[in-house]
Amino acid sequence: MTLDPKRRVEEQPQAPRPSNVGSVKSMPSPQRHPEDGRTDRLSQKIIILTGANSPLGIGLASAHQYAYHGAHALYLCDLESTHLATHAHTLTAQYPNVEVHIRQFDAADEAAVREVVQHALERYGRLDVFLANAGTVGGGSRVFAEVGAEEFMRTLRINVLR
User: What are phi and psi of 77, to 5 degrees?
Assistant: First the structure.
């Protein structure tokens, strides 16, 4: 094993990227263990999730868990909208009793956050959960050692200081 992080990354086998990125067929389904039981602990809850665009992220996994456990409405929100409609379609197909809304906005924009919260309050009369999951990892597919100081500070400003 080499000590050079760039070479280690280059030597790792890369999985082929599916040609249908952004479609329902390209989205992996969250894994469930046989002992997982559906409960009603989130029955009728109104939930807003930021950072919900990633096909493999915490936001999407949380949305599936909320729907699985009986949420009434989910707001999937993100700055990027590449996968939001696909996520909404998948959730609606798997959980037809869940109302899924998608919103594209910057979670650091207070007015935009206020608008989605206001929509939930006007439509449902309450908001039960706000999962502030938006953030960035910066650096793209590069190893951490290649991320410069300016990009690292930008990541900190987005994730910590906003």
Answer: -125, 145
**Sign of the dihedral defined by the CA atoms of residues 49, 56, 80, 74, in that order:** negative
In one-letter notation, the amino acid at residue 134 is A
Tokens found for residue 129: 């959960």
| 43-88: pLDDT as tens digits | 899 999 999 998 888 999 999 999 999 999 999 999 999 999 999 9
Phi, psi of 66 (to 5 degrees): -60, -45
Per DSSP, the residues of the chain read --S-HHHHHHHSPPPPPPTTTTSGGGSPPPP--TT-----TTTT-EEEEES---TTSHHHHHHHHHHHTT-SEEEEEES--TTHHHHHHHHHHH-TTSEEEEEE--TT-HHHHHHHHHHHHHHHS---EEE-------STTS-GGG--HHHHHHHHIIIII-
Q: Do 78 and 53 contact (CB within 8 A), yes or no?
A: yes
Pick from 56, 27, 52: which is nearest to 133 by CA?
52
Of the candidates 128, 123, 65, 122, the residue with the CA atom closest to the CA atom of residue 95: 65
Q: pTM of the predicted model, to two decimals?
A: 0.71
